[in-house]
Specification:
Layout (H helix, E strand, L loop, with lengths): L17 H26 L5 H14 L6 H19 L5 H5 L4 H4 L9 H7 L3
């Protein structure tokens, strides 16, 4: 657990070009991957570290084809904030386990296409 609340804090900055953004994304990705065993231990996640790393990769892959530099910078800001909150134990177990919920893993099939199909499936 962190000793200082600002131990994982990073200053907000804009990427100068796509090469700089790529370096920052890869650095953030590596930080998350290295933290997976610690996250499992801190939050008592009932999944192996490999599953946690797979889920982290899915979250990064979801935004792989973003083509605006400003949006990449915002996503990096959010990733760094989530990283700080997670490793400082500012999240609850339910927040971490929500990433492994089956509905979050379904992708495009998450919501029904219209009201009737959702009603017949028993969704509210």
């Amino acid at each position: 657990m962190a000793i200082l609340a600002t131990q994982f804090a990073k200053t907000t900055r804009q990427s100068a070009n796509w090469g700089d953004a790529r370096k920052r994304v890869l650095a953030s990705y590596r930080e998350w991957m290295r933290a997976a065993p610690e996250i499992q231990a801190m939050y008592s996640v009932p999944y192996p570290v490999s599953t946690i790393r797979t889920r982290i990769r899915q979250e990064f892959e979801r935004n792989r084809f973003v083509n605006k530099l400003s949006i990449v910078d915002v996503l990096l800001l959010k990733a760094n904030a989530d990283y700080q909150e997670t490793l400082n134990y500012w999240r609850g177990n339910s927040h971490i386990l929500a990433y492994f919920n089956e509905q979050n893993l379904q992708g495009d099939n998450k919501l029904p296409s219209n009201f009737i199909s959702g009603f017949l499936q028993g969704r509210n």
